[in-house]
Each structure stands twice: as structure tokens, then as C-alpha cells.
Amino acid sequence: MRVSGHRKRMVLILAALSVVALLFGCAQTQASLQKTVFRPGTYTASAKGIGGDVKISVTFSATDIVSIKVDQHNETPGVGDVAIETIPEKIVKGQTLNVDTVAGATITSKAILTAVEECIKKAGGDVAAFKAKQPVAAKKAADITQTADVVVIGAGGAGLAAAVSAHQAGASVIVVEKMPKVGGNTIISGAAYNSADPERQKNAPASAGPEATVMALINATPANELHKQMQATLKKEYEEYKASGATYLFDSPTLHALQTFEGGDRKDDLVLIKNYTSKTLAGLHWLESLGMKFTDTCFTVLGALWQRSHKPVKPLGTGYIESMTSYLSAHNVPIMLETKAEHIIMDKGRAAGVIATGPSGNKVTLYAKKGVVIATGGFSKNIEMRQKYNTQWKTLDASIPSTNHPGATGDGIVMAQEVGSDLVGMEYIQLLPMGDPQTGSLSGNIEQGVENRIFVNKEGNRFVAEDARRDVMTQALYQQPDATMWVIVDKHSYPTGSTKNNFNETIDELVESGRAFKADTLEELAAKIHVPAANLVKAVAEFNKAVEKKGGDPFGRTLFADKIDTPPFYAGARVPTVHHTMGGIKINTETQVISTKGTVIPGLYAAGEVTGGIHGTNRLGGNALADIIVHGRIAGSNAAKGM
Predict the structure, then answer these.
(1) % of the chain beyond a pLDDT of 90
(2) Which of 454, 475, 433, 468 is CA-nearest to residue 539?
(3) Do residues 445 and 422 share a domain?
(4) Which of 256, 416, 471, 496: disulfide with 421, CB 3.0–4.6 Å?
(5) CATH for 405
(6) Interior/surface letters 428-439, b for 16+ CB within 10 angstroms, e for the rest
(7) Which of these is catalytic: 470, 515, 557, 574?
């Protein structure tokens, strides 16, 4: 049948209209579907972070998450901040909950994700779909090649000290850090800094330093000629102190050195130790010159053995990191985050730079005209490595938690070995009896200092001198039921509920979250922590009697301050946890790396926990922060000179 032109045009128009209608209908359907993704508005939710509730507000359009705002939090400064800044941005950018947590701020990251998930539910969204959606893949950036006088690997305390010191010596500096934030273990530490300090020690009573300790060090059989000379020096210092009639605490770099030497079972290098303790006070004053503040009195941190631990005014290690990064920022010294150093560049036997991998997988080549400083920390988070070298403990497998940040995996040790570095003391791995039962971290610890607290086991009995070496206390804890203990303190440690521990947590917050227990009587406290009341009462009475006498403790304890006799009383549970690796790269007093042949590797320096030889079998509490500052400064200064 023949169709007229007019009719054909009508058919085509109708067909076209049908297609348009179909497309329009599909568009309407799609728009309708999109509009039902969320109920537009702003919704709020909160979830538990490491410092309490993290409260957020999320604004939705009909189709998208428009913004995420963290309204309130009490997360650790310099640690949780990174998650608070980056996690919301990643969620909004990718319109997905499938984002990686920030290494070192996992709990804060999860709190934000949990709270956002709750807001999505409130807005009528499909949580499962948002969890399943893949994030937008980052494009690989261009390769980078840069040159500076000094390249520092690691932006923890030692690396930052090296970077500041190198810059102060006139060098240009580049810092590379594999983590998404600066700080390393330093920023999450208890932050105690050991040093003999003539000014602050005047605020401590003489009874805080028992004469028996000093005399035992003086009269010990010398290990070598240097040891003998230092014993003679200590004897002279102590006799002069007694003749002066001083009523304050005796201390000196010599006493500090000999306690460190004996505390490490003489497996440490006394030459390194003597150099170290002679420079701790200068390191403290250097930090103060950068704006860091310490309290006016010293205390005894766990395992320090003497009342020479300095406490920063700011919580944890934030004061160290903030003071040094402020200097680097003010002087435009770059810190390349999420940039993992892989290899040391060698040129004619000299360290000449670093090959690294950038955030997107791009190659980063950094040439160092004068020196490379390795400051990557220890290997407490590398289970394979700690199992390989462990000879002291029954096991250091994944069942044993660690206080360390996720980046403490021994990378610098491996890189140094590649270029011929010798290692020393790798088998010496320190455990603390102070780990959180759930995470192994130091957070939640209710002790304020050694002098004012005792430990009891799950039967309510004391079992060790609480001022002993860290390894001694941990070994004793392993002999207790479930390797678990309770730290017991009273109002002397927490005058008010808002008093904070050394990790920026108030005692009220710890009690509210179930990480500590509070009672008006010891019997009530015993009931709350499920230990026999008679045993706990006896343990406290025994301790109080020794406090009165300033001695005579059945476990041999010598450090005391106040009795545990004033309510409220508090208890907090603790377990063993991997804390510090004493072994690492062999260095000399100039922090130059020593090869397996016993010679200096030109242009290569190391500082901090990545090194070995300073702490022997057992590091004294409070010695690490002083170590990283002293040796970080030396490394940076010498690298700037191109020694």
C-alpha cells in the first residue's frame, strides 16, 4: 500500500515523540530514583573514639552527601586530627563509606565512619550500598626528583630533631615519612624525658634518692676502665653532695649513665651512654628554646629507677612534635607524607640520597649532597621481625599486642643492612606490664608516677617491687593469673575527677567508659574488680607501712611518696605489651652508621629507636625521649657538615 508523504511525516513525528516520551519517562524515573536516595537535611550522630564521643553532623541533598562536620571530639591532638580532617573529605568526595582508616588513628577513623553510617540511616539511605561502592582510584602522579643537603627518613621525634638541627646548622633539608601524619611513636608516648637537672631536682626531697642505690653503683665490680673512672667520679660527686648538707635529690649525668648501664645488664655501650647522658639537659633546653614547656618538678616514670623524669605541659608527645614541626613550617622545610623510603642511594661508597615511593605509587628520588639520616623507629609492629630476633620471651607472635604506632616495622634497619650496616642487640625487645587489655596501647593507664601506686594480681595480692626494671615487672606479671594486674591509686593521684592521666584522659572519662573503677572504700573497689577484699586491704596496708618507714618493703621497693589512704580509690587493668626494641643499627657517638667491617659508612647517620647499643637488654623508662632528641640533634648537625 502506498503511503503519502504527509502521512509518512506524521508516522515519523509520532515515532519520534514516542522515543522522546520514552526517554523523558526514563529520565523521570531516574530522577525519581535519585530523589529517593536521601531525605534532604542535616542529621547528627556520635560514636566512641579513643577520647570519648566523636559527634558529627552530615548534610544531605536528595542525591548526595553534601558535607560532613565533626562538631565535637576529645581525640588525641596530632593523632586523631588527621582522621578528623581526611575521613569526612574522602567520604564526600567518593560518596562512599568504603574508605581506608588512617593508620595510627584507627579508632578515631572508625568512630567517624560509624557516626556517618548512622546519619545515612537517619536520612533514609542505603548503608550497604555506600559500603560497597568503590572509591575513586587516585591517578598516579608524576615521578619526582629533588635535591637537598640533607635527607631525613622518618618524621617521628628523632627525625624531626635531626631536621631542625640540620637546618639550624645551615643545611637545606627534605623529610620523608611513610605515614599520613608526623609524630611516630613520640606523639603517642607518655612523653617522660629523663635528665639530671640541677634546677628541678631541688624540688624533690632527698629521700626520693636512696643512698643504697648510689653506693651499690659505686661499689660494683667495674666492667672496664671507663666504668671504673665513672664510679670514681660518682663517688666524688656524691661525697660533695653530702658535705654540702643539701636536702634535695642527688642526681648527675654520671649517676644517670651508670644506672642506664646497669639497667641494660652492661650489654649497652658505655661510651655511647656517657655521651648521651652528658647531653640530655642541653637537649631539654633546646626543646624549650623551640617553645616546648615542661612542668617544674620531676617524677619517676615506670621503670626509670630515679626521680629524673620531666613531664611536658602538653599531653602525650604533642609538645615535642608541635615545637619541632612549627620550626620546620616557619622555615619552609618540606615534609613529604605518605612517601615510603625504599632504598639508600650509594655513590662511590657514600650515602647520596633516597629512593622512595610516593602516595600514588610514583617514584620519588631525593639526592642528598651532604648526608642521609635514618630515623624510622623500631620494629615492635613487625611480628615476623620480632619473632625472628626474640630470644627472651616465650613468644612475640600476634597474640602479644604492642603500644607502638603502625609504622614501627623496622624499614630503616632493612635499608641500612642493604648498604652494609652492622646491627647490634636485635634480640633485646622490651615488654611493658602496662598495656590496655583490649588494644595493648598505653592509653587508659591510671598511674601518674611510680611513687604513688601499687600493682595487685587478680587475687588482690602484690607480686613485685613496683619501682623495679621494666623487664623484671613484666616477667613477674607473666607469672600471675591470666598475666593481668590491677593498678591501684587514690585521691593523691587524682585530686579531682577532671584530673588527667599522662595520656590526656580524665579519670572520670576512664571510669565512665569502664576502663577504670572507682570506689569510696577498698572493700567496695575489690568487689568491683572481683578480687578478695581482705587481700586488697592487706596489700595496701603493707604498702602504707613501708611508706611510713621509707623502706622495709617485703618486695624490696625503695621509691615512695604518699600512702594509698584517701578516697576515692581507683583501679585499672593492665597486661603485657611489646613496647621498645633496643637493638638496631650500630652507630658511634657522632651517630655515624658503622658497617659490618667496623668502618664508618660515609654520609649515613642514624638516630632514635632504629639504632642499637644505647639501652642494652632493658631500656630505662624515660630514656627514649631523651635519646631521640640527643642523637637526633647530633645526626642532623653532623649530616649538615657532611662529615
Answers:
(1) 80
(2) 454
(3) no
(4) 416
(5) 3.50.50.60
(6) bbbbbbbbbeeb
(7) 470
CATH assignment at residue 474? 3.90.700.10
Judge whether residue 64 has pLDDT over 70.
yes
Q: What is the pLDDT of residues 338-381, one digit of tens each?
A: 999 999 999 999 999 999 999 999 999 999 999 999 999 999 99
Tell me 481's DSSP state: G
Question: Which is more confident, 48 or 619?
Answer: 619
90 C-beta neighbours (distance < 10 Å), count: 20
In this prediction the pTM is 0.86
Interatomic CA distance for residues 569 and 529, integer angstroms: 12
Cell numbers standing for residue 282: 642541653
Distance of CA 195 to the CA centre of its chain: 20
Indicate the pairing of strand 350-357 with strand 592-594. Answer: unpaired
Between CA 80 and CA 74 the distance in angstroms is 9
Query: Is 470 considered catalytic here?
Result: yes
Its domain, for residue 623, covers 144-196+276-427+591-641
The strand pairing partners of 176, in sequence order, are 153, 336
**Phi, psi angles (nearest 5°) of residue 46:** -145, 160
Residue 405 CB coordination number (10 Å)? 25
Handedness of CA 279, 189, 618, 584 (dihedral sign): negative
For 588-604, what is each residue's pLDDT tens digit?
A: 999 999 999 999 999 99
Give which of 22, 20, 616 is closest to 268, Cα–Cα. 616
Q: Do residues 159 and 153 make contact, with C-beta atoms less than 8 angstroms apart?
A: yes
The larger pLDDT score, comparing residue 74 to residue 384, is at: 384
Instruction: Single out the residue of 444, 465, 445, 443 nearest to residue 454, CA to CA.
Output: 465
Backbone dihedral angles phi then psi of residue 180, each to the nearest 5 degrees: -80, 5
- Do 458 and 314 share a structural domain? no
Q: Which amino acid makes up residue 185? A: N
Contact present, 406 and 381 (Cβ < 8 Å): yes
Instruction: Scan for cell 588512617, then name that residue.
Output: 102
How do residues 75-85 score in pLDDT, each as one tens digit?
Answer: 877 678 888 98
For 287-336, the pLDDT digits (tens) are 999 999 999 999 999 899 999 999 999 988 999 999 999 999 999 999 99
Provide the grid cell at 302: 615506670
Looking at the fold, whether 125 and 149 belong to one and the same domain comes out as no
3-state secondary structure labels for all residues of 518-559: EECCHHHHHHHHCCCHHHHHHHHHHHHHHHHHCCCCCCCCCC
Q: How confident is the model at residue 21 (pLDDT cuts 50, 70, 90)?
A: very low
In terms of DSSP H, where are the helices of 245-269? 253-263
Among 261, 268, 264, 263, which Cα is nearest to 229's?
A: 261
For residues 482 and 367, state if they share a domain: no
Do 407 and 503 belong to one domain?
Answer: no
Place of cell 511525516: 9
Sign of the dihedral defined by the CA atoms of residues 575, 608, 390, 397, in that order:
positive
Closest by alpha carbon to 57, among 122, 134, 130, 125? 122
Q: Same structural domain for residues 340 and 414? A: yes
Tell me the three state secondary structure of residue 565: coil
Contact 218, 235 (CB under 8 A): yes
Distance of CA 1 to the CA centre of its chain: 89
Picking from 171, 599, 585, the residue whose alpha carbon sits closest to that of residue 415 is: 585
Q: CA-to-CA distance for 440 and 437, rounded, in angstroms? A: 6
Q: Are residues 367 and 459 in the same domain?
A: no
3-state secondary structure 291-307: CCCEEEEEECCCCCCCC
Name the one residue in this structure whose C-alpha cell is 636536702. Answer: 247
Residue 362 and residue 141 in contact, taking contact as beta carbons nearer than 8 Å: yes
